[in-house]
Amino acid sequence: MLVKLSLRNCSLLGTIPDFSSIANLSYLDHSWNQFTGQIPPNKLANNMTTIDLSNNHLNGSIPPTFLYPNLQNLSLENNLLSGSIPASIWQNGAINSKDKLTINLQNNSLLDVLGNLNPSKNVILRLFGNPICKDSNIESIGQYCGPDGDGDDEVAQNPTNPTNVCSIQDCQPDNEYVPLSPVPCFCAAPLRIGYRLKSPSFSYFPPYITSFELYITESLKLDNYQLSIDAWKDGYRITMYLKLFPSYNDPNHMFNASEIHRIKTIFASWRFPPNHFFGPHELLNFTLLGPYANDSKRSKSSTDIDILVAVLIAAVACVLATSAIIILLVFIRHGKYQRMISKKAPNVSIKLDNVKEFSLKELALATNNFSSSTKVGQGGYGNVYKGILHSQTLVAIKRAAEGSLQGQKEFLTEIELLSRLHHRNLVSLIGYCDEEKEQMLVYEFMPNGTLRDWISGKNEESKERQNFGMGLKIVKGAAKGILYLHTEANPPIFHRDIKTSNILLDSKFTAKVADFGLSRLAPYEEGSGTKYLSTVVKGTPGYLDPEYVLTHKFTDKSDVYSLGVVFLEILTGMQPISRGKHIVNEIKVACRSGMIYATIKSKMGLYQSDCLDKFLTLALSCCQDNPEERPSMLDVVRELEDIVAMLLESDTSYPDVTFDNSGQMVPSSSLGSNVAREDQHKYAYVSGSNLVSDVIPTIVPR
What we know:
By secondary structure, the chain is α/β, with parallel strands linked by helices. Helices cover about 30% and strands about 20% of the residues. The chain contains 16 helices and 34 strands.
């Protein structure tokens, strides 16, 4: 809603646009531009209060449509206007009798008046600098042609004054009568405020005093009688002097300190609600006089104290900053000495059997100063380097990244824990280094890499050993290592990041579980006896237990789920997540559609199909969404041992089978009786039937 349009002194050119379609416009100021042409003849909105087109290059005559009942200021001076002045602007009830209208037509080329030159007393007409002022035939023309105008800059006084009925001597010193108080002759101490409307939509204030008083008192949450506008000065900016009185219910007849602060804050911080008609405002003064002067002194004293406190705080801050700089310089100066002390010995040391404390120099020599050529891996803990110790022993050195560093006590506690873990399927800790802000773990080196390397056939030896039997051997070893962590470690350990890249292979392809440590400790116990670790979700996407992701409670069954994903990777060669698809969902879909054998990796070699069915059933049981339906790690190990035993049996009733490149199951030999072939196909059909139904088989705990 456009109420006021002011484009004063904007160097605008051309003709003045037609604004007659703006229904709510009340204030138009296009003065001090370079407009040319005639004034648009169409009538503007009926509630116009100000039209200022002065100081342009407008020509032609004044339109007779300037008939606005609320008009207060019509400024057309300093243009090139000619012709007659329409007297209808101020005649025939064109304006309200209580309003004041100023018409400034000075310095144009106006010749005469169209009508009678008899404006009412509330109309100020200025014609100086026009040819009409030289026409002596026009009666009383001289009073409108003076250069100084009519002195409309005088300060107007509010006529409301109760002293004509109340004796001024009845009020206490510094108090005065509240003009509109509902209690007759009520005296109180006013707050005196200088206030200015910077750009109102009018220039003559009296018609709008009542609405303005209502606007101010509602904004201040005061009653109407508590505001008195003592005086004001009309014009483009309306300056006024306000008095605010306390409530007549106040026994002290004055505002308290909190009320003064509240009112002053509203005036000083422009918290009045926006009003397009009254426009922006500014506070000229808020001086506390009379009985309020003491509050002013207290406020000043409080301000002085605040300044003193601020100075003291700044001084203390400077002293502290200077001290910090001096301490920093001392540390820099003696940095070499401090590093020498750090190299000499750690603050805390431990002595453990079979675990050696290495120096940083030893490990730097072992890795050619941690050369990139010796880097063999990278994980969440940091980089892994292949090193050769002085004794020609191959080792893997895990060097903690800066964000993985622990406190020295916590790090040594983890070393002590790891030194107590001994199992043929866990990576053995050889030693550690805790020196010069470095934390490193030294493990036995695994020459055949990770299980992921074996699945992908990263090297020739892995390719040669890719078969179903070797895969079973590897995962059985990994399961035994994890079972040891769950049941025999003290305290028990949940791995929380079981994946193919954390299962390492030694020279004989024996599985060694890696990357377990202090962060997996401290399981809590619920009332039901279920142990779980409440923690922020950690691990590798694709291997995470869905229940753990939802509840943030990690249990031993969460490790079982991750191991089940590893089983499926061995069978299919697939990644846990590929192209947005999860391996568990893909295998379940293949089972239900009867296409499971098409997903089995063709490099699995010879094996009994019965073993495949049992292994696939075990893998899917481990990956059940409900943790209670998953087998325990002990049941997983037992089932794997049974499958391996079946594979080793020389039972001719279950002939060996393999897969061709299309994924179809074919006999391992073209020899054999028709009965053998018939049994084989019969078995393939029966075993497949368990995996094409909607129900995934489960492993019953023993």
